[in-house]
Amino acid sequence: MDTTEPVIVIKDLCKAFGSNVVLDHFNLNLYRGENLVVLGKSGSGKSVLIKCIIGLLRPDSGEIFVFGQNVPELSYAELDQMRARVGFLFQSNALYDSMTVRENLEFPLRRHWLHVEQKEVENLVAEVLESVGLAHTIDMMPAELSGGMRKRIALARTLILKPAIILYDEPTTGLDPITGMEIIDLIRDIQQQYKTSSLVISHDMKLVKRAAGRIVMLIDGKCHAQGAYSELKNSGDPKVRAFFD
Amino acid sequence: MPFFSIQRPIVDEIGSLTRFTLRFFREAFRPRYEFSELIHQCFVIGYKSLSLVGLTAFIMGLVLTMQLRPSMVRYGVEAQIPAMVGIAIVREIGPVITALIFAGKIGSSIGAELGSMRVTEQIDAMEVSGTNPFKFLVVTRTLAATLMLPVLVVLSDAISLYGSYLGVNIYEVLSFRLFYTQVIDNLAYYDAVPAFIKSYFFGFAVGIVGCFKGYYSNKGTEGVGRSANSAVVMASVFIFILDLLAVQVTDLLWEL
Ligand SMILES: Nc1ncnc2c1ncn2[C@@H]1O[C@H](COP(=O)(O)OP(=O)(O)O)[C@@H](O)[C@H]1O
Ligand SMILES: [Mg+2]
User: What CATH class is the domain A2-241?
Assistant: First the structure.
């Protein structure tokens, strides 16, 4: 696998809501097979960043290349094709609470691949549930699951389309430390098993330490610093140090 | 304080609702059509309101008859009760009361459902799963509400009239056949058709307002409650306004 080829390139991304400037000429590259963590404090615009990548928010200016296509310029149909290859794990899981786990998992399959055989759907559902270790929950409703289980099902729903890139929005926020750790390990396993490139946004230093290959620090809407955990930990910059103390 | 700056939020709201409604018409007539979800919603929306509409309709018919009776007896026209009640129910009380009950039951549940889907990012999740959430959620629910309310109104009229029949029979013996004939003989198309048509508009108002309030729900669980509540209030006001317009329009057409 060519790990020097970027799958996401962000150039000079700007996004403001009224007078609230959230992203200010932000730059980032995500390389194939890499585990990149964007670290930033709460309210720094991390969610805005990945919602721009997946096309849920429209940036004010700048370019976002995903597999070489500039997201803000894509048509609806092209956007759908891109989204079938890029998974998104929502911070609040976003499981459809009127549907069972099975229906939740089938939803993206049936919507993205219009003609798909029942047998294949069942196989894929079983396979992803196995990957996240929750095969027994298939006929349960999301409300019957614990927080950690819901996160796993949400991850399974993201995996079912076998995405080449997965974007994680604060995967450990709201979970207890032990469950959080299990989710981090699961993310690493998934990364190995499915050979995805991951972009994780977080403010959880445990996650950063355990899972990150490379770290990008989002401070004041810019890419303030980047590097490996050990490099940033010994940085002299007070804004960077604030995260590690 | 000048009038318009106080009313500003209301004007803004009406503007966004108008834009939302226009978007509904744009999206409703363009593929892809979500037929199976529409059928599902028709079933859910119709079924959910059935028992409540039935109960209130029955009580309305019964009470209306019993309340009317003393005055009718005083003027010696108690034989006209079936005709009067029939006209009152079919023209006005059936559609309006059913629509208000429908707003309370369905408007609030659509508002709360879409509101919580917005807050927990389920609407965003649909969008990244190759689905246009506006079509899948808003168009189907609004159409289902529009199609189901007239059906409920017809049902509610029938149940109200049966309630009225029982009300008459508390005091005197009147065969159902005679009651039925008296009601039907005094009803014209002019009574039934405009009432039926206006219930489509009532249904549409309940659906679109519920979806509008839910779709633009504010962050937080308290936003969801507010969406549900204001959906009912706004839809109820619209029902009365539409009723007012409907009576003017029918009146004009009748003159012609
Ligand atoms: N849809 C929106 N409309 C207005 N402001 C928004 C919207 N989404 C996010 N913001 C603002 O953008 C800033 C960054 O939000 P967010 O990306 O959610 O932070 P976080 O880094 O915690 O994920 C916040 O100040 C928030 O108020
Ligand atoms: Mg966030």
Answer: alpha beta
